[in-house]
Amino acid sequence: MAGRYSYYSQKLAAEKLVEVYEVAPPRVKQYLNAEIEYVKSNIHPGYKILELGCGYGRAVKSLANPKISIFGIDTSLPSLMMAGNYLREKSRILFAQMDAINLGFTNKAFDLVFCIQNGISAFHVDQLELVNESCRVTKKGGTLLFSSYSPKFWEPRLEWFEIQSRQGLLGEIDYEKTGDGTITCKDGFTATTINKTQFAELTSHLDANVSVEEVDESSLFCKIIPE
To answer: Considering the entire predicted model, what is its pTM?
Structure first.
């Protein structure tokens, strides 16, 4: 796992990751909630669910339900330890430190696999490998969800990153290199996005029903249903 997710597993883990969400302005909190509600709309009783990049369990807590089983993975051990405490009263939820492109699960293990808040870019792994490995553990007829940012959400997103920078959670933003969906900090942190065309290219080889939907004018959700 060396070199992967290093910013979020080392610099923005556990308490610092919590602060990232605490400082989010209202429009960003609306976006965060809209993503979770979209995931909820794809869940049915009896589902076995996997979240890629679960952090300290923010999304998992909102999805927790005794009628479903949830597994959350992340590369950050401090965040996972916090998740265990954060959700200690919730049943049917398990966490593990794991690389999203090398999942320790059998084929077709989950009814729903999801990776929200632009994890497909934020993980900084080979995106095709990530899609293929995620599909491997998703059942036929199940659902795989990846989200990225909508171009319409650029200004609220940039404002949120500026707040994080002022709070010392991120490095100073390099405005000369920031624009067209990419936010770059002078400490080397870079946040990119995936557009509809790129989602189509990443999924064109799959034997699956694929669609891309804009949600809340803030997210682009790529929905993959393996056939």
So the answer is: 0.94
Residue type, 4: R
* CA 51, 54, 57, 59 torsion-angle sign: negative
Alpha helical stretches, state H, 90-172 = 119-122, 127-136, 154-166
pLDDT confidence of residue 85: 87
What is the pLDDT tens value at each position of the chain, 227 positions in all?
A: 333 445 565 567 778 899 999 999 999 999 999 999 999 999 999 999 999 999 999 999 999 999 999 999 999 999 999 999 888 877 799 999 999 999 999 999 999 999 999 999 999 999 999 999 999 999 999 999 999 999 999 999 999 999 999 999 999 999 999 999 999 999 988 999 999 999 999 999 999 999 999 999 999 999 999 99
Give the residue from 149, 109, 150, 140 showing the smallest Cα distance to 209: 140
Between CA 58 and CA 51 the distance in angstroms is: 11
Euclidean distance between CA atoms 217 and 219, whole angstroms: 6
The residue type of 89 is E
CA distance 113 to 130: 12
Q: Where are the domains of the chain?
A: 6-154+194-226
Helix, strand, coil in percent for the chain, rounding step 5: 35, 25, 35
Would you say 198 and 41 are in contact if contact means Cβ atoms under 8 Å apart? no
Does the 6-154+194-226 domain belong in CATH 3.40.50.2300? no
